[in-house]
Design a protein that fits this description.
By secondary structure, this protein is α/β, with parallel strands linked by helices. 20% of the residues lie in helices and 27% in strands. The protein is built from 8 helices and 17 strands. The strands form 3 sheets. It has a 9-stranded mixed sheet. A 6-stranded antiparallel β-barrel has the order 5-6-7-10-9-8. A two-stranded parallel ribbon has the order 4-11. A hairpin with a 2-residue loop joins β6 and β7. The longest helix has 13 residues. The two termini are 25 Å apart. The mean pLDDT is 94.
C-alpha cells in the first residue's frame, strides 16, 4: 500500500514557474504513452497530433475570482485572508493568517484607497485545515472584491499577484466565477488552438468545477485512506451531459483537461444528466477509472492529491519516471509551468 512518502520527490527550485510562457501554446508538452511506456517531448501547440477525429475534449470553464484579501486586526496587526466558499448571504468559509491568534468575534478590516470591507470572525479555529467563517457587514461584496481582492496565486509562486495575472491566471474559456485557483492545465489553450482542434473533428465540451481548498489542501497523514478532501462544487449542463453520454455510447475517447475535470467526470460515473453537485472524491492508486481515457495535466507538487490522481491514472512508477525525465529536460513545474498528456 502506497503512503504519503511514496509521492515525494526533489525538485530544483529554479524549475518552479513564476510566470507563464509569453504565448499560451508555447509551453512544453511531455507525451506519456501508458501502453508503450514511452515518452516524447513536444510543444503544447502540437497537441492536435495526439488527438483524433471523434475524440471528446472536456474543459473546465470555472473562473477565478479575486479571493485574496489583505487587511488588519483592531490591534493594527496585518492579516491575509483567502475566501473559499459562500455559505449564505454575507457569510463565507475562508482561510486566514495568522489564524491561531485571531479569536472568535474579532473584526477584520480589508481595503485600500478608501474602499473598505469589514467582517466578523464567527468561530474559533477548527480541525487541522484551519478553515474559519466570517460575516461581512459591508454591502456590495462582489463589487468591492473586484477592486480590493487579489488574484490568489499559489504560495510557491513567490511574488505578489500582478495586474497581468488577472488575465494570465484565467483560461481563455473561463466563464462561471467561483474558483480560488485556476484549472491550470487549461491555461495552455488559446482560441487559435481550440479552433484548430474543432476543425480537426475533435468535439469540445465544458463542465464546471469551482477549484477550492480540496484541490490544494495538504495531505497530513501517511495513511492516505484517512485523508478527507474538502468539498468542491461542480455543474454539468444539458449539452455537456449529452456530449459525454454520446461519446461513451459510441466508445469515443474522452480526454479530460486537468485533474478537476477528471474528478468531476469520475464523481458521476457513466450516466450523465444535467446536474449541480458536490464532490469529495479522492482518486489515488489503485482506482478503477470509468470515464476518462486520456488526460492533460501540469506537473504537480510532491505529496499532493493531484500527483496521486495522476499516479492512479498512469501508474506510480511510470509517472515518477516521467517526472524525473521532465526534470532532466528542464520542464517548468506547477501552475504556470509546462504540461503533459497521458494517453
Amino acid at each position: 500500500m502506497l503512503t504519503l512518502q511514496d509521492f515525494d520527490f526533489e525538485l530544483p527550485k529554479e524549475l518552479i514557474a513564476f510566470y507563464p510562457t509569453p504565448k499560451r501554446g508555447d509551453a512544453k508538452l511531455l507525451v506519456l504513452n501508458r501502453a508503450t511506456r514511452q515518452t516524447e517531448h513536444r510543444i503544447f501547440n502540437e497537441l492536435p497530433d495526439f488527438l483524433k477525429k471523434g475524440d471528446l475534449l472536456v474543459l473546465n470553464d470555472t473562473k477565478v475570482f479575486p479571493a485574496r484579501l489583505f487587511g488588519v486586526r483592531p490591534t493594527g496587526g496585518k492579516v491575509e485572508a483567502l475566501l473559499l466558499k459562500q455559505m449564505e448571504e454575507g457569510v463565507w468559509e475562508f482561510l486566514v493568517k495568522p489564524s491561531g491568534r485571531i479569536k472568535k468575534g474579532t473584526c477584520l478590516t480589508f481595503g485600500e484607497n478608501g474602499l473598505r470591507l469589514e467582517g466578523e470572525i464567527l468561530d474559533e479555529p477548527r480541525g487541522e485545515n484551519g478553515i474559519r467563517k466570517i460575516r461581512f457587514s459591508s454591502e456590495g461584496l462582489r463589487e468591492k472584491l473586484a477592486y480590493i481582492g487579489k488574484i490568489p496565486l499559489p504560495p510557491y509562486i513567490e511574488r505578489p499577484s500582478e495586474e497581468i495575472d488577472r488575465e494570465l491566471y484565467q483560461t481563455v474559456f473561463a466563464d462561471k466565477e467561483g474558483a480560488v485557483a485556476s484549472p491550470t492545465a487549461g491555461l495552455h489553450f488559446d482560441e487559435e488552438l481550440l479552433e484548430k482542434l474543432r476543425n480537426q473533428g475533435i468535439e469540445i465540451c465544458f463542465v464546471t468545477l469551482h477549484v477550492s481548498y480540496g484541490t490544494f489542501q495538504p495531505v497530513q497523514t501517511e495513511d492516505l485512506s484517512k485523508h478527507e478532501i474538502y468539498e468542491e462544487e461542480f455543474e454539468i449542463g444539458k449539452k455537456a451531459a449529452e456530449q459525454i453520454n454520446r461519446a461513451l455510447i459510441k466508445k469515443r475517447r474522452v480526454i479530460a483537461c486537468g485533474t478537476t475535470v477528471v474528478r468531476t467526470l469520475e464523481s458521476i460515473g457513466k450516466n450523465f444528466v444535467p446536474q449541480k453537485g458536490k464532490t469529495r472524491l479522492f482518486i489515488r492508486p489503485p482506482y478503477p477509472f470509468q470515464v476518462v481515457d486520456a488526460m492533460i495535466t501540469n506537473f504537480h507538487i510532491p505529496k499532493t492529491t493531484l500527483l496521486m490522481l495522476v499516479s492512479a491514472f498512469a501508474g506510480h512508477d511510470l509517472v515518477f519516471r516521467a517526472y524525473q525525465e521532465a526534470i532532466r529536460k528542464r520542464c517548468r513545474f506547477y501552475s504556470y509551468g509546462d504540461a503533459m498528456i497521458i494517453l
